Amino acid sequence: MASSFSFLALAALLALASWQAMASDPSPLQDFCVVDENSPVLVNGFVCKNPMDVKVDDFFKAAELDKPRMTNKVGSNVTLINVMQIAGLNTLGISLARIDYAPSGQNPPHTHPRATEILTVLEGTLYVGFVTSNPENKFLSKMLNKGDVFVFPVGLIHFQFNPNPHKPAVAIAALSSQNPGAITIANAVFGSKPPISDDVLAKAFQVEKNTIDWLQAQFWENNHY
Amino acid sequence: MASSFSFLALAALLALASWQAMASDPSPLQDFCVVDENSPVLVNGFVCKNPMDVKVDDFFKAAELDKPRMTNKVGSNVTLINVMQIAGLNTLGISLARIDYAPSGQNPPHTHPRATEILTVLEGTLYVGFVTSNPENKFLSKMLNKGDVFVFPVGLIHFQFNPNPHKPAVAIAALSSQNPGAITIANAVFGSKPPISDDVLAKAFQVEKNTIDWLQAQFWENNHY
Amino acid sequence: MASSFSFLALAALLALASWQAMASDPSPLQDFCVVDENSPVLVNGFVCKNPMDVKVDDFFKAAELDKPRMTNKVGSNVTLINVMQIAGLNTLGISLARIDYAPSGQNPPHTHPRATEILTVLEGTLYVGFVTSNPENKFLSKMLNKGDVFVFPVGLIHFQFNPNPHKPAVAIAALSSQNPGAITIANAVFGSKPPISDDVLAKAFQVEKNTIDWLQAQFWENNHY
Amino acid sequence: MASSFSFLALAALLALASWQAMASDPSPLQDFCVVDENSPVLVNGFVCKNPMDVKVDDFFKAAELDKPRMTNKVGSNVTLINVMQIAGLNTLGISLARIDYAPSGQNPPHTHPRATEILTVLEGTLYVGFVTSNPENKFLSKMLNKGDVFVFPVGLIHFQFNPNPHKPAVAIAALSSQNPGAITIANAVFGSKPPISDDVLAKAFQVEKNTIDWLQAQFWENNHY
Amino acid sequence: MASSFSFLALAALLALASWQAMASDPSPLQDFCVVDENSPVLVNGFVCKNPMDVKVDDFFKAAELDKPRMTNKVGSNVTLINVMQIAGLNTLGISLARIDYAPSGQNPPHTHPRATEILTVLEGTLYVGFVTSNPENKFLSKMLNKGDVFVFPVGLIHFQFNPNPHKPAVAIAALSSQNPGAITIANAVFGSKPPISDDVLAKAFQVEKNTIDWLQAQFWENNHY
Amino acid sequence: MASSFSFLALAALLALASWQAMASDPSPLQDFCVVDENSPVLVNGFVCKNPMDVKVDDFFKAAELDKPRMTNKVGSNVTLINVMQIAGLNTLGISLARIDYAPSGQNPPHTHPRATEILTVLEGTLYVGFVTSNPENKFLSKMLNKGDVFVFPVGLIHFQFNPNPHKPAVAIAALSSQNPGAITIANAVFGSKPPISDDVLAKAFQVEKNTIDWLQAQFWENNHY
């Protein structure tokens, strides 16, 4: 799946998003529809390769999900195994991720437009929460220990935070889409390319324009690789 | 649909959200399934009343969508006609809204977790935009004139802003769910009940904790009625 | 989207139908899947262009929905903004229309095989109705004034009629599919190409064959442009 | 399933319709969800009985589909086995019918709002056809012999006609919904209760009002039992 | 549809499977999407031909479902009319089959991963049954006579057996997918290519390895043509 | 969720099955629809509790997925966290499992009628495989090491086997349904209650009746708790 995947990878880097999970990918109409990495044709999801050319490695990845990852500026790293990583996931409505948290690190507030997320803690502790939609905007939060399981409903803003200043944490999360997508709130609002007008944001967030300008000048790093 | 609707209305005030649109409400299994306002049973969507009791007014509302509305602090007002307003919309996957914009008013950055939105300008001009998901966070924006039509894809952060400091603007928007939901970013992040820990938000937004505290002390008014 | 859209337009003129709304277009598997107007490949919906080539105008149309339209022989005109008009609507499950009604004009009995319709009156008054399926065939009707909202459930026969012999009427309608389709009953039954056998129709409608022949000789004009 | 089914049967007689087939009933979330005939609660589809009370007869009906049926005024009879006949069909998206045709009889022009239909001829010959949606309204027709198979796409107007004036015909049809619904065009347009205004219909069908009045005075018998 | 269908046929012979039925094929986005037999592009389902080139025979097959078929080693023969047989079935979520049973013949235990099945007996008698999922594995069975109807829920293991040692039986079955797929348990477990390790199967079925070896040496014939 | 959950638990023990994953649970129509454990009403999925009564623990379980489990006779144990374990999963289309494998243990051949499965190895090594549907019945297999990821497409027969005779193995698996269901082939075919006729099975599996009788006399233990 190496170099011939370049067109796909490029497309993936752009609008096809990152990691969120939702309950309703369309149903398959054959046993599987493995991504044809060489096709120039783009559809909702991906076109399939000839089933005669499908091999077991289309359903496999030596993802090294057992290995710790470097974390970024906000102290986290999401290693997502979605349809861009395993071509056999196309049409099948699921993906999997390992998330590393540095001490005091977080996977900052974000939404998954196309997936619910279910998470279990492998190492350390995590303080997690999500916020319901308008008009309530109720915040539900919980401290999770090793072995605990938590659910983040599709489309709602949520985060995970490692409250331990000395020890890292690790989680495995599953998402209900082959391509859940992720929208990190700070990055989308203050780090968009080009920037959103500071007039709009100043009024929306009830702050001075120069606060917005300062926020837009920061480097908003993506934590999904 | 007046007073007997109180339980439903209460439920609606809570988690059932406001106005967002998504492409995949489940399909109907009969001609219609009009909300039974008296039923204590809650399901995905709503339970139906006896079809013998269905009358034409179950598909109707004297919504006065031709009348201007008072706008709120950020200068807008969304009058949403969804399944909570018209009981006959249950299982049918669509809703409609009138949006009023004060001079220089805006419908601030928000997402609809369950709907795509299509909008046309009835009066005035609107500067609109949406931001794609990670890692691109590409911002696409457009100035709209009277009669123009624009689409906001499901789940993406978007806004509408009236750039005219002297004249109001009006739009009609349709959303692809009976209950699209709306998550106003500022309200959900800084106005949740209870507030999200300022430790988490300070690091997520790369600002001082007292900036977060100040933001959380503001009044985050909902603009959907 | 001009001339390169010709193949698509041609296809659209044929079987891809006009404007009806239904609750269950498939869900998107990426942020958006904008129609690739140059692709010779046809799928359920449309193939997507490279997301790198997507621009804001793919989600926009200067549709002039504020402008009155000429009406046809039965006194109406449906200006539908669906996926053939806005390429960005592909996979997103919604479309929008302006409907003009001449004095005493009507949008005659028709069904939308793939969409529910929600309508609001912008100008004038409309007498509207729909008929339930067998065996009841119950007719529900209502007089609508400016600002009122009404719902026509997916697949049911319905119409709108402007009862005012002196003044036109205008409505905005939204439909729950990117390509709702419309089947005008008179046109499909009496104006099909080639005509349905008059033996079949005479017995089906309990009239003489020459009545059917006369009906089939009329000009059945489409009111959707 | 006899007398306790009375409430359900009553509901069924009203808006829940008859026999049409569509490609997208929602997916089951358990092995089966057999209709609870005693429940007063109505939902999209039906509520389920306790799985402990499910027995093999919930998936069975001694429907006598091998036996000829009396035909009605237009010379046909549709014996539909849908969720109202077999409680175990709930959530499973399919139904089955036997159709009897008298010599020169027909199953007159109708649509199935929620199902595609696939039909095979058991006895005799059938002349069948369907009409595409606007603006084409293309009529596709075929003479079918014993053993032939034909498909009527969801939502399109179609009919079957027995061209033999001396011999009956029989078909088995399957429909892609637990409750496909049927809208017989003549019955819905000219036989609705109450009647549609003759002003509206006269203009829609380009005939004199008294022709409409005459049509509305006919007896429009349902051919689905 | 003859020779140009060869690529498609080849693909069909491989992973696209045979005949099972499920409730949730995606919904159509146009009147129909007839398989383009000449396209090299593979998608979930099939790409469509130009609607201008669609003709009535795309919805038709002279399938001779009235004619008896030769049966195989286990005494049955499934003649399935799915999207590979009728190109017009693409996106429409249904297929049809005739099943012949030799005296004492059976359609052995199998599942349909993508379809519910509804069956009616045309000739003879059938003993049928299905087994629920873990942990119950409840077996529900019934003796069916001519004209009876029975339902096999999607994904569950089921069979039909002709208990009459002297007379054949015939059934018509419909399945809720354009490509339901069939997994004959014995063939998939003991007749896979290459064979599953006898270590695994011996322990799974609690038998000696040489019993497994003996089973794997048998000829596991497919009964779907 | 303790004792009041008894009715639900009972129902769950019966037909609602165990752990399989499929790509198309219906979409949510509100932020969440948490199971109402006290409701006597059963629907496709579950009815929801009043959103005012929803609390964070409805999305949480102290599942101790970090702790090793006792394995059964075939040497495995599936600890499934589905909608029966976390009430908040209702309508959200996903579940999670920890699987323990004894040395030389296996999770024997089974299907998930309603879910695709994605699995990662936490400890040890696993030999895994799945078989495609008829007529190919192609067996695809792979040896997995710690950190590897593998996908089992919805509805196909698959297994995992720990080839190490000295060391246990552990995996985390996610499934694309709130209630994926599991059908262990040996248990459903030879361990059903009541047993399937040995006449049928002997011919289906091409063995002597007494071999079937012997198999049916074994104890077929469920490995899902």
Properties at a glance:
alpha+beta; five-stranded antiparallel beta sheet; homohexamer; 13 strands; disordered N terminus; 4 helices; 14% helix; 225 residues; globular
Short description:
Six copies of one chain form a homohexamer. Chain A is of the alpha+beta class and 225 residues long. In chain A, 14% of the residues lie in helices and 28% in strands.
Word description of this protein:
Six copies of one chain form a homohexamer. Chain A has about 220 residues and is α+β, with helices and mostly antiparallel strands. Chain A has helices at about 5-15, 185-190, 200-205, 210-215; strands at about 40-45, 45, 60, 75-80, 95-100, 105-110, 115-125, 125-130, 140-145, 150, 155-160, 170-175, 185. Chain A has a five-stranded antiparallel beta sheet, with no helix packed on it. In chain A, strands 9-8-11-6-13 form a five-stranded antiparallel beta sheet. The first copy, chain A, has a two-stranded antiparallel ribbon with strand order 1-2. In chain A, strand 8 (about 125-130) and strand 9 form a beta hairpin. In chain A, helix 3 (about 200-205) crosses helix 4. The first copy, chain A, is globular. The two termini of chain A are about 20 Å apart. Strand 3 (about 60) of chain A pairs antiparallel with strand 10 (about 150) of chain F.
